[in-house]
């Protein structure tokens, strides 16, 4: 997302065009909180980050989280596992090492944007 045309941006574009983006209120709030950090100011404007959050919120499927797991070595990342499990995701695409360490998880892949591209879908 921070590099237009980069591997992560291509993965997001592909999911938005032909997949289903699964989120929860918690994961959307976390994304907004992280993207509000000043360290991103030199990469992308706050306004573009705000628009990105709005875009995702408008096209993503909000998943109610009924089943919760506590499996990640960083407990704050369990929210992403919970969305994926409750939404019956095929994969989680992430650069987070704590999540990547769990691959595979309950029949789903946890992969980097580059690995997603290697699947031949971006």
From TrEMBL:
Record Pfam families: PIN_3 (PF13470)
Domain (PIN) ranges: 7-96
UniProt protein name: Putative toxin-antitoxin system toxin component, PIN family
Organism of origin: Candidatus Kentrum sp. FW
